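Quick one, probably user error.
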């Protein structure tokens, strides 16, 4: 992975975290910054175009509206079954919310929450749309060859792969809430993979120790056995 792509990926993850932590006054700006990283002219954007199909958003939107009885109705929100198709529809949904082609309040009342406050709708939209989209897109992107290349011309790690599974890093990046900020743990894991690829084994040992110190309280809070 090149430095530019690594920087873009970190920027995307940071902006995704900002969206998931946003409220009434900050949501619009945070969402637009997240989508700016996925513009077609950017590194992340070009990769996203490659891994995601072109969605038939109108057909999907009409289908889910029909399920709830049209505008003003309420019901479950159904997504396409595959990760790529689902992420493609979710990305188009985010873009339409960001440029006001789709009303977030109306969408939220129909599919996401019974709460009447805008903050409730924003938090529900972040949990049920933004967070799954980020998680699935990162998983799809990490399967691309560019995401596995190192800065020294594609030299592979000694074991043929990263020290920390990229999918696990993607899952951690998509988490939000709770007393612990997962961004530090994600950053430690990313740097651990960089050091391992470049055979900096003393640094690998020290970063591993830091990760081990950081993980237990996080998973204790998350009730992971």
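Nope, works fine. Designed sequence:
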């Amino acid at each position: 992975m090149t430095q530019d792509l690594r920087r873009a990926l970190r920027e995307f993850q940071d902006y995704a975290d900002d969206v998931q932590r946003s409220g009434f006054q900050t949501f619009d700006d945070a969402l637009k910054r997240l989508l700016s990283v996925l513009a077609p002219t950017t590194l992340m954007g070009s990769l996203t175009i490659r891994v995601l199909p072109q969605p038939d958003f109108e057909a999907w939107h009409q289908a889910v509206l029909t399920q709830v009885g049209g505008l003003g109705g309420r019901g479950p929100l159904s997504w396409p079954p595959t990760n790529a198709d689902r992420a493609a529809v979710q990305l188009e949904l985010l873009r339409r919310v960001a440029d006001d082609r789709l009303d977030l309040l109306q969408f939220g009342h129909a599919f996401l929450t019974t709460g009447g406050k805008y903050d409730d709708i924003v938090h529900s939209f972040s949990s049920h749309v933004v967070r799954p989209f980020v998680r699935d897109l990162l998983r799809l992107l990490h399967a691309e060859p560019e995401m596995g290349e190192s800065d020294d011309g594609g030299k592979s790690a000694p074991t043929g792969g990263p020290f920390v599974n990229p999918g696990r890093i993607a899952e951690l990046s998509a988490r939000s809430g709770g007393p612990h900020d997962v961004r530090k743990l994600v950053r430690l894991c990313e740097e651990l993979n960089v050091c391992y690829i470049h055979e900096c084994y003393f640094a690998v040992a020290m970063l591993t120790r830091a990760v081990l110190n950081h993980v237990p309280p996080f998973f204790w809070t998350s009730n992971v056995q």
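Confidence is low (pLDDT under 50) at residues 151-160.
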